[in-house]
TrEMBL record:
One of its GO terms (molecular function) is isomerase activity. It comes from Brevibacterium linens. It comes from the Bacteria. The keyword Isomerase applies. Keywords: Isomerase. It holds the Pfam family PrpF. This is Acetylornithine aminotransferase. PANTHER family: ACONITATE ISOMERASE-RELATED, DUF453 DOMAIN PROTEIN (AFU_ORTHOLOGUE AFUA_6G00360). Belongs to the PrpF family.
Length: 380
């Protein structure tokens, strides 16, 4: 049976997804078992699709275009909105709620204003959000015009055509999203095995758990296009083994086989060098502090996940992490609150405040736009 559910299609940063008011969805039981939601979300996005295109749904066949956000007015003191992020698998009938999405976090307030979940007078406002996935707060700053989030602006976001109004994301107290802390194992760098080989990695959790590995260690330059990396079966196999073993080390699961799909993500990094971008231009080495290729849901991201960018900014300031070493060697004195990441789509700048041996906040600017409002067809 086909059902029609109120939904909104939103671009947030370099991702797109379906946004729902929680009141439009079936109520969850006391244990908040999401099975009833999962069936609706996978149907709406067109999963599972063995062809990898999600043609029979709203998804786009890649992880950054197969996402769900559920939003509700918050009953928590000092919080405006609660939101839950769901990463919908393309090839399986599964939804992973183990992490947050920084890109779509920028779309929560524009959606809520459009849907009437909150209201605000015109002008710049900072809204406080609570992310249920990580049990963390997120502050979102944006300008309201005629009761809606401003769209027009001069901010250029690598990977998104045109320009848009800035949306500022600030994650207070980002350390230990689903793990025990900023450095889940207590080490800035450590050795971990995958495929019978030993790798030195940094395991960092600031807004998102990330495994940081030098490209050379897995046979990559670290500046390849996403398509080149995805086609490298050996490297992708090593990355996935490394990710699963790191998930156990970070306390996210008991065995590699039980590793969540969403976290940890893997950041392949290298020293600055000229980088060919997806639009055909070349980014000079001195225009960025660190080339990065982020692996998400078994695919190389065409830009960088927002939470991933903030985690890398935090890692850059932690003494003796792999990123900290690279930046200090290549650009002496360059380590600071902001780090310029050379992604396949261009430079993304993220910030982190490091104080008293911990990261007290991370930040990132995104743009967002409500693309369509209406109803989406789902089958039970």
């Amino acid at each position: 049976m086909t059902r029609w559910i109120d939904a909104t299609f939103v671009r947030g940063g370099t991702s797109k997804g379906l946004f729902f008011s929680e009141s439009a969805l079936p109520s969850l039981n006391a244990d908040r078992d999401t099975a009833v939601w999962d069936r609706l979300f996978t149907s709406a996005m067109g999963s599972p699709d063995p062809f990898g295109r999600q043609l029979d749904g709203m998804g786009g066949g890649v992880s950054s275009l197969s996402k769900i956000v559920v939003v509700a007015a918050s009953a928590r003191d000092g919080v405006d909105l609660d939101y839950t992020f769901g990463q919908v698998s393309v090839t399986e009938a599964a939804v992973d709620y183990s992490g947050n999405c920084g890109n779509l976090s920028s779309g929560v307030v524009p959606f809520a204003l459009s849907a009437g979940l909150i209201s605000a007078a015109d002008g710049w406002h900072v809204f406080r959000l609570f992310n249920t996935n990580t049990q963390k707060l997120v502050d979102v700053g944006l300008r309201v015009v005629d009761g809606q989030a401003e769209v027009a602006g001069d901010l250029v976001l690598p990977g998104v055509s045109g320009t848009g109004a800035p949306v500022e994301l600030i994650y207070p107290d980002p350390a230990g999203s689903p793990t025990v802390g900023l450095l889940p194992t207590g080490k800035a760098a450590e050795s971990i095995t995958a495929g019978g080989a030993m790798f030195e990695v940094s395991l960092v959790d600031a807004t998102l758990p990330v495994v940081i590995v030098p490209g050379a260690a897995i046979g990559l330059k670290g500046t390849e296009s996403p398509e080149e990396i995805d086609a490298n079966v050996h490297a992708m196999g090593m990355i996935e083994q490394l990710r699963r073993n790191a998930a156990v080390r970070m306390g996210l699961c008991e065995s590699p086989e039980e590793a969540p799909d969403v976290v940890p993500k893997v950041a392949v990094v290298t020293a600055p060098e000229p980088t060919r971008l997806l639009d055909g231009t070349t980014l000079a080495a001195e225009e960025a502090d660190l080339p990065v290729r982020m692996i998400s849901m078994g695919q190389t991201h065409k830009a960088v996940p927002g939470t991933g960018a903030m985690c890398l900014a935090a890692a850059a300031q932690i003494p003796d992490t792999i990123i900290n070493r690279i930046i200090r060697r290549s650009r002496p004195g360059a380590v600071g609150p902001d780090v310029r990441l050379a992604t396949p789509s261009g430079v993304v700048t993220a910030g982190a405040v490091f104080d008293a041996d911990t990261v007290t906040a991370t930040s990132l600017f995104r743009t967002a736009r409500v693309l369509m409002r209406g109803q989406v067809a789902v089958t039970d």
